[in-house]
């Protein structure tokens, strides 16, 4: 299936609101010791984890993408950016585990105009 970007995936735009940022900070502090378990679960559920350095913006990019074997979120990708790699990883996991409750992600064509 052809996707809407040159990367072969559809990016799910998601920026945290101020309330979500506060929730993320508390969640990250309480769940840092479980990060390995969260990542193991995601990879075992047919998600791919990618870590990249963006030297132009002096930050790290973390992407979690549903692979072809992932029936729920196949071809969709959620990303986060931070100047701290661990924070970017935790933020991406937070979006999936807390905001989407490990469920189906919004497809870009189904999002409202004010999303992001």
What does this molecule look like?
The protein is α+β, with helices and mostly antiparallel strands. It has a single domain, classed as Double Stranded RNA Binding Domain. The chain is 34% helix and 22% strand. The chain contains three helices and four strands. The chain has helices at residues 18-31, 35-44, 85-99; strands spanning 10-11, 47-54, 59-66, 76-82. Strands 1-4-3-2 form a four-stranded mixed beta sheet. A hairpin with a 4-residue loop joins strand 2 (47-54) and strand 3 (59-66). The longest helix is centred in the last third of the chain and has 15 residues, at 85-99. It is globular, with a radius of gyration of 14 Å.
Helices and strands in order, then pairings?
Elements: E1 10-11, H1 18-31, H2 35-44, E2 47-54, E3 59-66, E4 76-82, H3 85-99
Parallel strand pairs: 1-4
Antiparallel strand pairs: 2-3, 3-4
Instruction: Supply the CATH architecture.
Output: 2-Layer Sandwich
Outline type: globular
Calculate the mean pLDDT score and round it. 89
Order of helices and strands: EHHEEEH
What is the distance, rounded to the nearest whole angstrom, between the alpha carbons of the first and last residues?
26 Å
Number of domains: 1
Q: Which CATH first-tier class would you pick?
A: Alpha Beta
Structural class: alpha+beta
Topology, number of strands: 4
- Biggest sheet character: 4 strands, mixed
| Residue share in helix | 25-40%
Number of helices: 3
Across the major sheet, the strand order is 1-4-3-2
List unreliable stretches of 5+ residues: 110-116
Provide the gyration radius in Å: 14 Å
CATH topology: Double Stranded RNA Binding Domain
